[in-house]
Amino acid sequence: MSDQEFFGARRWQPRFQPVMAIAATWEEMLSTPAAQKGFQQVERQEGATLLFASCLAVFHDMESGERRWEPVAGVYCLHDPQGARVDPADLFIGRSLADEVGAEELASVRAALEEAARRGPLALEQAVQELLRRYGLPISAATELSDVVPPAIVARAGFWVVGQPSYDRALLEELERLCRSTVSGTALSFLQRPPAVGCPKFEEVLLALANPINPTLSQAIALAAAMRQPLTVITGPPGTGKTRVIVGLIIHHLLVGQSVLLASRINRAVDAAVELTERLMGKGSILRTGNEQARMQLTETLGELTGRSGWGEEGELFASLSRDRARSSMADEPLLRQAGDDLHSYGERIVHLCHRLNRQARRLQTFDMGPEGDWWNRLWWRIRWRLQKGERRVRELREAWEGMTRLFDELERHVLPAARQARTIALWKRLGEMQHRGGSVLRELMTAISDQRERPRAFEKAARLGFPIAVTTLSTGQNLPLSPGLFDTLIVDEASSCDPASLLPLLYRARRVVIVGDPKQLDHVTRERWTRVMPVPHLRSVGGKPFEASFGVSAFALMHKLADEETFWLADHFRCPPPVIAFANETFYGGRLRIHTSVQELPPILVRHVAGRHRTRGVTRSLTNEAQVREALNILAEWAERHPERSLGLVAPYRAFVDEVLERLHDDQAFDGLRRRRDQQQLLIGTAHRFQGSEVDYLVFATVAGDNATDQQRQWIEFPNLFNVAITRARRQLLVLVSPEFEHRLVLTKQLLRATAVVLGAVEVERNSLADRVVAELERRGLRYRMGCRYHGDPVDFLEDREPPRWGILLCSWAKAAHLTPLDALELWDRRRALWRRGVSVWVIFPLTLDELFDHLIGLTSPRSSGWK
User: Distance between CA atoms of 228 and 200, rounded to whole angstroms?
Assistant: First the structure.
């Protein structure tokens, strides 16, 4: 850190808090005024953490020539409702020491420091000084720190308020080891020889639909691809169930007895997947590790697992199962076999009917829309129609389509629920077997979890038994060995925020990889030293297309290019109020999302005008706004009283604003209730980076910039990725704080405030003879219509022009019907069902079947009609 950060400046507290003497125990050390002051600063600064170090180093910055301060080696400190403590395994080794330590020695140095940290702060001080002597690094005599001339190492202990740890040195060690390793048989080899990717088969999608998570069709297609392909890239916009798909994959691997590793750079993303996994299957169904706090929680979980005689039924999936029925079913598993046979049988029947429809459509193509032209052409058409039994062929085509829709209905109502229940019973049995068979391994892991040398080996044994493991990318090297192909599948969540360097060791540990992310949300911010890595590698995609694998791109972008930009979209949205997601859908996602939410609060989007000027704060010159700080806290306090059971949030584009809110929250007793909510994780306050992977019921979005805002500040506030993340965290209501003077110059914000619950986006309709005939008939009968639009995200070729619409038409020309696949038919049925749930009666129309359609429409729109179907 710079002199200003280290010593402090006007309106900026020093980020180094010195201690007069090192105490004998951590309890005494963390009770000192310096530690307490450091913890207070951490609480008031987003993304900050506290580190204790006994020695510091000062050196010249090569570019600016200014002094830079850094701990020589230290340990990170934690503070939660249980109290303050250190994490002995969570170590920082500065460059002054790390540059002298070879890659082979780094592990032993870390082990020595961890062992010393467990004994106490004095032992850690002695270990650091011993290392400095061993590597010939002199310690300067104690003096006034402001007078220290770099380069120098000074024995001055203290607490450092720093950013989140990055473990770059440990990552470099693993990358160096990879350079000497053989990568064949691991997912890392995909960078040299990318595997083929493709769409899953219809039968595989049916199996995925039988997953106990009850996936949507878009989720099932992504699941099916991830279950069979070596490399799968999944794009998951906000609220489309990325976490649910990840849990579905974990369930699949448990059922087939394969190992899986879940990793993400974002701690909250890992926690969200673990929480959902345990909510559905019970505590211990996934082993979450990471820093000292995560490992302590895991120790408690392992104690509960090893103390139980069988798998419990506290998971939501198992709550509906009768234990007696489950046990009787498990004796010979007839239910599971029957469910599998039923799925296979239905799949074969649907495929057979689809082939019948294709065959008849090809034979009917020459008849187009019916007899046209002069009397001779019309006569010849009728002769051919009779000779080629056209009427029977149309009847068989319609019967094939109606047969498929009946089978799809039966699948949804009976077959798939039975298959999911059978798999749920099998899952419960599998978890119980793992718990029984892996008892000794779990006890060994519980013992080794506090030992840095034994911990990786113990996790390897657990992984080989099939226990799913979850970890952040920053903690992987501390917990898992660098073993090739240790896991059958690696899942990387929020991969758009992950750097390629952290991805490489993860790929080496797996044989398959599933990349999950969203390039329209927060992208990875690459540290400058990584962007200067030369030469930039050049790779080839699956299709042989060359591209640069720069460290400046995200892990998602790298693997997306490797897969020739083939990705599986999660299209069904279940989070935000309709106007919020309708705006995001049209603005950021090209209308590809299907919106399944309804309005929970009126109005779903609020605006509060707050006049006043902003000011800059700190050395970074970040913006804050006192008037918006007051208004935001007052709104949160009002919501807290009105909605005691709901989660709240405050998101802002500037860290200085967030820090000022946290300071006010900490200092003002009037907000004690909000402070308690924050301690209970019921109130989130931060920038968009803090909210990535999170959601709340009620959200305040403070734009911060005041009446004196510039166009440059407008561009930052409305930077698309940040803006998208900020507004799509709200589940029930979004409130925007904005300067009335500044609002006139905003673009995206004004569009958001004008957003409506239903956006009828335009869709291209192929103009063919079928479309032209429908247009002519609709106009002849005086029926008002829209041609080519999306209703709540679902494309419709023709939709009634009223609010709400009562009918819609989906066209299926002869050419389309001739090439229709079973999966295409399922997607048509799924779209029709979604529209029907919105109150829209929808018909799938083939050529030569229009008369029946218009009979339906006339009946539906006549005055005697009962309205919505």
Answer: 8
Question: Containing domain of residue 799, as a range?
Answer: 756-868
Scan for tokens 């106007």, then name that residue: 579
pLDDT surpasses 80 at 733: yes
Name which of 388, 397, 391, 411 is nearest 354 in CA terms.
397
Asked whether the beta carbons of 248 and 211 are under 8 A apart, the reply is yes
Q: pLDDT of 311-342, one tens digit each?
A: 888 889 998 775 545 444 554 467 788 888 99
Cα 488 to Cα 739: distance, rounded to the nearest angstrom: 53
Nearest residue to 256 via CA among 148, 323, 336 = 336
Transcribe 344-399 into DSSP letters. HHHHHHHHHHHHHHHHHHHHHGGGTTS--SSHHHHHHHHHHHHHTTHHHHHHHHHH
- Higher pLDDT, residue 229 or 869: 229
Query: How far is it, in rounded angstroms, from Cα 230 to Cα 194?
Result: 9
C-beta of residue 52 within 8 angstroms of C-beta of residue 121: yes
Whether 440 and 298 map to the same domain: the answer is yes
Distance CA 746, CA 400 (A): 54
Is 400 within a domain?
yes
Rg (alpha carbons) of the chain, rounded to whole number: 31
Query: Do the beta carbons of residue 341 and residue 399 sit within 8 Å?
Result: no
For 455-498, the pLDDT digits (tens) are 999 999 999 999 999 999 988 988 999 999 999 999 999 999 88
Task: Tell me: do 717 and 777 sit in the same domain.
Answer: no
Contact 38, 159 (CB under 8 A): yes
Residues 420 and 436 in one domain: no
∠ Cα 511 512 513 (to 5°): 130
Which residues fall within 8 angstroms of residue 277, CB to CB, at 6 or more apart?
Answer: 247, 250, 285, 286, 468
- Non-local (6+) Cβ contacts of 754 within 8 A are none
Name the DSSP letter for residue 801. Answer: S
On whether both 160 and 63 belong to a single domain, the answer is yes
Interior angle at CA 18, CA 14 and CA 23, nearest 5: 150
Q: How far is CA 768 from CA 13, 250, 367, 798, in A?
A: 70, 46, 14, 14
Please tell me whether residues 402 and 465 are part of one structural domain. no
- 3-class DSSP state for residue 128? helix
In this structure, the answer to whether residues 606 and 732 fall within a common structural domain is yes
Three-state SS string over 165-192 comes to CCCHHHHHHHHHHHHCCCCCCCHHHHHC
**Distance (Å, rounded) from C-alpha 101 to C-alpha 696?**
46
**Across the chain, how many H-helices and E-strands are there?**
37, 31
- φ, ψ (nearest 5 deg) of residue 184: -60, 140
Q: Annotate 570-609 with DSSP letters as a single string.
A: --EE-SS-HHHHHHHHHHHSTT-PEE-----SSSSEEEEE
pLDDT of 188 reads: 93
Distances (CA, A) of 289 to 261, 262, 391, 444, 582: 11, 11, 66, 15, 38
The answer to whether 744 and 609 are in contact (CB under 8 A) is no
Reduced to 3 states, what is the DSSP secondary structure of residue 25? coil
Lowest mean pLDDT, pick from 89-98, 281-290, 802-811: 89-98
Same domain, 484 and 562: yes
CB 560 within 8 A of CB 730: no
Tell me the per-residue pLDDT of 414-430, one tens digit each, with 9 for 90 and over: 999 999 999 999 999 99
User: Domain with 254 in it: what CATH number?
Assistant: 3.40.50.300
Q: Show the tokens assigned to 175.
A: 């990358």
CA distances 424 to 274, 281, 319, 347, Å, are 18, 9, 10, 21
Is 845 found in the same domain as 738?
Answer: no
Residue 233 has φ and ψ, to the nearest 5°, of: -115, 125
At residue 652, the pLDDT reads: 95
Q: Is 483 exposed, middle or buried (0-12, 13-18, 19+ CB in 10 A)?
A: middle
User: Does the residue 200 lie in any domain?
Assistant: no
